[in-house]
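Methods: example folding runs. The two proteins below were folded one after another, and each record is reproduced exactly as written to the output file, sequence line first and structure-token line second.
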Amino acid sequence: MTTYAIGDLQGCHEEFVSLLEHLDFDPRRDRVWLAGDLVNRGRGSLECLREVEALGEAARVVLGNHDLHLLGVARGKARTKHKDTLNAILEAPDRERLLDWLQSRPLVVREGETLMSHAGLPPRWSLDRGEALAGEVAERLAGEAAEAFLEGMYGNEPACWRDDLEGLDRLRVIVNTFTRMRFIDARGCLDFSAKEGADSAPPGFAPWFQYPRDDDPRLLFGHWAALQGETPGSRVRAEALDTGCVWGVALTALNLDTGERLCVPSRH
């Protein structure tokens, strides 16, 4: 059995199928971890959802910000944005089954000392702490208050985590950390203005992986296409998976056993 980790699909269905073929992936034997943002921007968002859902237990998926946005549009009161490519999902005959499946995905997956989330893990959160906080969001998504959460998850405030946060403020910081984090300051506060490479940090901020940790986990993340799979200046074992398929670059798979990276070029 081989386990692979693949970065943001964002509707790049043809490339996803091509990459699985390139890997000689067999769901009866192999496993794939997907770093979130299965949908949006690309033209095959519906097909990506169907393809991944059909893999069953062979696929482990975390929620990304675009996945949560789809749920917010479909089940909250959010509106689609002009660059969204979600209509095919919203109009599909199997939309409710696919949305139920997506809504049941976690913010993190973990095996031992390896953890994957869409955007990373801040240095002040241990693996256990990260799992526990992600579990709070999963519990809300599975409960009767899911719609209220999906309506209230949008926004940049609070930008800093505090243990005494409650309600939607608490859940919003957890979601933003796991799905939107790029640059943080020494206190762990999030910046949402800069989205380019690691050298574009605002004053007082740096990429989250350039801060040291007290432990030494293996952290897998997507979200940050501008990094092109690199983590310059990293002080932790962080491995970037998003190589910008939807932006015309490539879709990449990391062999978690050997560290080898395989990719297929974008067709966009």
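Second run, written to the same file directly after the first:
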Amino acid sequence: MRASLIQIDVNDDESVESRRQRVTALVREQTDADLVVLPELWTTGAFAYERFATEAEPLEGSTYEAMAKAASDAGVWLHAGSIPERDPEGSLYNTALVFSPSGELAAAYRKIHRFGFDQGEAVLMGAGRELVTVRLPETTLGVATCYDLRFPELFRGLVDAGAETLVLSAGWPERRRAHWTLLAQARAVENQAFVLACGTAGTHAGVPQAGHSIVVDPWGEVLAEAGADEEILTVDLDPAKVAATREQFPALKDRLLGLDPPPHR
């Protein structure tokens, strides 16, 4: 299975519509890939909080239409990153979209863990409530977004639901890039799954982005890593390696769940 992660340069000098057209063209070019992955909130920028409300779209809005057509034109599975979604009641969500090679919506995931510590996204966006997996011919994807990476229980839930490839779109800041790499490898090792983590390049809302999109195998080996600038990271994966790893080193079978809490003293 060939995966292409498109690490988009997101900056304040480019309009949302111009970037949408540019990214659509990049997706259309990935005809040799089976799966294409885009970053989080690449239309607005993950830290451009003032744009969330003004640029929010209905689920089936302009970005949805452009990405559905691009997936169909390229004949690829497309994790189209996420958009600021406005639902019919007016609430905002950070919503990831996954399309099939025919351009049909295969899944929508509303980000569960919102970043900001009672500011920014944590206040402006609603929280998702459902884990999302997508069955591809070669593997089952588990879908997560950016700050979710810090919460291992979410990924355990995805694995319990059958995920073999964990796909994460992000707008991760440069100042915490070491955490990005460390946590991507940790999620791969502890879940014995591939991790495909696609971030943004550039600077938006005054926040330099980490870039360094990364692909990690079930043993924690980094198969490919981007640099700091806009880049398309393409890697060939062997989906059978997940089952082989879990059979060779069956740590997941030793999980102990439902343990009693410690006694009160």
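Comment on the second run: The two ends are 54 Å apart (CA to CA).
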